[in-house]
């Protein structure tokens, strides 16, 4: 498949008019063809206009039609074959197996949302039947369903060229909800984006949906990205990236004449608490699996374990020594972009230069221009509690071990954490009481709490929460991974005493969609 | 019961230190005793500190304990007896029967939320069981529940001294969710607020809950209100009031180091569409019931029908004539506050002075210092479509009839509406096709669509939506009336592979709360 270097606006391919973007192969530094000229404001307007025009038809497609569309996108992505993973490898520096796995996850995610659409739980159908005889006032017939918010702007993420980009979790959940999507592709992987975008474009045509259901734009985040979020036809935003990028979109969304929700997944250091009994019993094994998690994807995961908290003493010293040895043996891995590599280097150097921080070990280097050298540091809890900078995320395989004098100090560390995606407890039976004491502080601050695992590797299921209090995300009330992500793009509408001919199909007495309903507040069996 | 004119901070009564607030009887202009000295920033801090300290214990109370607490508040409010409604009448100018009805609604609402807490749907329990044998990767055990956001700031509304004030819908739903509440009482009815606040204070003590579960502050919205929203321990805000008040709180909430959700219910003109067949068949009856709705509570409802849209012609002329006669016969009613009365007068005068607007009729006047004189106007759809000011809410019994040349122009009026709480269709069988054409535009813009009724009189049920796109509210994804209001104050947390001893009770295998669960995405029967 020959890449054309164009924007995709509805069913059209459009050559941009702004500065040209080229992907760079981070493993070699080579510039990749073709160039992608950025879109203009009028391209943004055209994409949004088409999305708005498609909305009313798309949002009332049958559950089956919409589910089939999501499945068709998955089929079309698979049909691209090795061209997709090869381009993904070239643009991201990630290994082929990872791209193949990510493609599986992306298509699995689309098919999961197809099943979610069919099940119809997201409609949240409620019916309070009329009570014409009620005293002192009769009750009207009241029915409720959820409808989609409107066209959604999605920003591709650098670290998931497939699973959180053009046809990733944000797009899948927004399309599942019934929202047309306008994607701003990430400048690091425009070719991968074009391939996937064309797959969606073909699925739109095959399913005979209105063309505005999907568009793909390229260009500067500051210009095209901001213009997209400011467009009055856009009603919600999905974003995965840096805190500065996310908060800039939040500000734009809030300054609009009509403010809109922004779902920005931004930064997290994912604290791991080493409880004393577990540390004593199996500190070596924990240290080894910790470094394996730290090195996954060159540490370029939102859930990378960037902070480890333990009680100062021989057991923690042994843990640090084992982890340090594993770090020293860690092979260098190519990072996603020159910018990310530079930010990693500078973050590690800053930590290393901090007088309160002790460098334990650095990993291997290689000749690659943008390789991540794993790094491990320690600092005292006292310093952590007084230096905000020690909570800053370093995107990549770097982690900081915090040594606490006692369990009270460990508790204070937990209570001073910013909002996080995850918290992990390494614990044995004897640690249960101490862990119980930590739980309330962790629940207040994180979206997912796990025991004896590692935060990397986020399951795409129904009970998953990939979210958490600010600044982990812009909106703690949701998740960006898993089937509940669909709720981000919905709102309730109540229909009072509507004649049957005007009622949406989902709300008819006969329950034609066969969905779970709340009748007078009781779950219908 | 003697009013003491104090703040209620946890179980303490505290005399404020700032300027004194006095309620004014709007029917007479009399100043009512006692005065309420406003709270200081340190009072705000103390209330928030107590709320934060109470949170972890309160949020883990059993469903039964929390439900019983809500019922105890209702009992304590009823036990105040006539003192409450008498003070409410004196402070609001509303009739006694209205205050009695509103007390019934307030206590009914608290008991409804008690039932909602017990049913546990709001926990949204999900469980994806472990799949240790899954290839290529095992699946961890994943469980999810919703937990409360944290302490909530609630702002009392002027127009519902009971049902949307100290123990109103926002407080009831926040307490039901497990959030401690700090109320900023409305300055128009401090005595009513103190009585209700003391009832909650007694319920907290009787149920042996931590005192910080509830506090009541008085003072300036600009100072105390803003300080409350800015306090880092506050995690969400409930507000019913003006657009300027709501947007000021939104700005403060967004500017915090940790932005928080604001649920502001602000303004709505609640368009009513007179479909041609219905207008022809029963225009007179519709006109009469329209003016009855317009006059309810002196028009001081968020759902007051402030805009009527019909097709120009003899049928609409007859409707306007009948409505005009009913307006002329409308008795003057006392408005809630001198400020609201002045805003009404000025809004009506502005409309009346608009060269494009035709004054149809004004209602009766009386000697009361703050009486609402009902008013009815007409304007052409052409002018409505070109003058944004004609969409401004006039809080009180004023309405504007828009005359459309044809159904296309009616469609354009619908498409140009700002976000609304409600839209109403007056329609007969022959209007079905025309109404169907309007539906998508209305669904995009409103929270509740009704047929052949009137928007005033909001049922507190499970299927109700009292919400809608901005500027009707700050967050269209929710409702502020009805049982679904509890979801405003919740967020999901996922528990991965947690030992049984650390799992929240709601998530245990045995389902001890006996709640509806989603197992592997399927609703458990």
From TrEMBL, chains A, B:
Aldehyde dehydrogenase domain location: 16-467
Transmembrane segments: none
PANTHER family: ALDEHYDE DEHYDROGENASE-RELATED, SUCCINATE-SEMIALDEHYDE DEHYDROGENASE, MITOCHONDRIAL
Protein name according to UniProt: Aldehyde dehydrogenase (NADP(+))
Keyword tags: Oxidoreductase
InterPro entries assigned: Ald_DH/histidinol_DH, Ald_DH_C, Ald_DH_N, Aldehyde_DH_dom, Aldehyde_DH_Superfamily, ALDH_KGSADH
Highest taxon, organism lineage: Bacteria
């Amino acid at each position: 498949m020959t890449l054309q270097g164009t924007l995709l606006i509805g069913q059209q391919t459009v050559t941009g008019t702004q500065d040209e973007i080229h992907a760079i192969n981070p493993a070699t530094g080579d510039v990749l063809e073709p160039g992608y000229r950025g879109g203009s404001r009028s391209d943004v307007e055209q994409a949004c206009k088409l999305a708005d025009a498609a909305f009313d038809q798309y949002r009332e497609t049958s559950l089956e039609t919409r589910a089939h569309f999501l499945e068709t996108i998955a089929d079309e992505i698979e049909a691209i074959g090795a061209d997709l993973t090869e381009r993904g490898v070239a643009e991201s520096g990630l290994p082929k197996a990872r791209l193949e796995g990510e493609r599986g996850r992306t298509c699995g995610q689309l098919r999961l949302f197809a099943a979610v659409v069919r099940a119809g739980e997201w409609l949240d159908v409620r019916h309070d039947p009329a009570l014409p005889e009620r005293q002192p006032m009769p009750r009207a017939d009241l029915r409720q369903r959820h409808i989609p918010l409107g066209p959604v702007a999605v920003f591709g993420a650098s670290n998931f060229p497939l699973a959180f980009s053009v046809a990733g979790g944000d797009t899948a959940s927004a399309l599942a909800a019934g929202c047309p999507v306008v994607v701003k592709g990430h400048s690091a992987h425009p070719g991968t984006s074009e391939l996937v975008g064309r797959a969606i474009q073909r699925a739109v045509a095959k399913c005979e949906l209105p063309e505005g259901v999907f568009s793909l734009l390229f260009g500067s985040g500051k210009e095209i990205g901001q213009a997209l979020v400011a467009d009055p036809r856009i009603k919600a935003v999905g974003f995965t990236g840096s805190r500065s990028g996310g908060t800039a979109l939040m500000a734009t969304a809030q300054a609009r004449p009509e403010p809109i929700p922004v779902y920005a997944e931004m930064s997290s250091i994912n604290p791991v608490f080493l409880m004393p009994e577990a540390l004593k019993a199996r500190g070596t094994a924990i240290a080894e699996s910790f470094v394996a998690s730290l090195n996954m994807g060159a540490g370029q995961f939102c859930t990378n374990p960037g902070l480890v908290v333990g009680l100062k003493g021989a057991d923690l010293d042994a843990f640090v020594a084992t982890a340090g040895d594993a770090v020293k043996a860690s092979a260098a891995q190519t990072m996603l972009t020159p910018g990310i590599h530079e930010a990693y280097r500078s973050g590690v150097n800053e930590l290393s230069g901090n007088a309160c921080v002790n460098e334990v070990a650095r990993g291997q280097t290689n000749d690659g221009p943008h390789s991540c050298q794993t790094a491990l540091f320690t600092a005292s809890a006292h310093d952590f509690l007084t230096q905000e900078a020690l909570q800053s995320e370093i995107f990549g395989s770097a982690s900081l071990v915090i040594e606490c004098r006692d369990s009270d100090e460990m508790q204070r560390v937990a209570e001073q954490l910013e909002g996080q995606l995850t918290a992990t407890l390494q614990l044995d039976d004897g640690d249960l009481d101490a862990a119980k004491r930590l739980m309330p502080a962790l629940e207040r601050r994180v979206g997912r709490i796990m025991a004896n695992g590692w935060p990397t590797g986020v399951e795409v299921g129904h009970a998953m929460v990939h979210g958490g209090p600010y600044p982990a995300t812009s909106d703690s009330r949701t998740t960006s991974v898993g089937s509940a992500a669909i709720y981000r793009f919905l709102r309730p509408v109540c229909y009072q005493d509507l004649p049957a001919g005007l009622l949406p199909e989902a709300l008819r007495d006969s329950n034609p969609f066969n969905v779970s309903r709340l009748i007078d507040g009781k779950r219908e069996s």
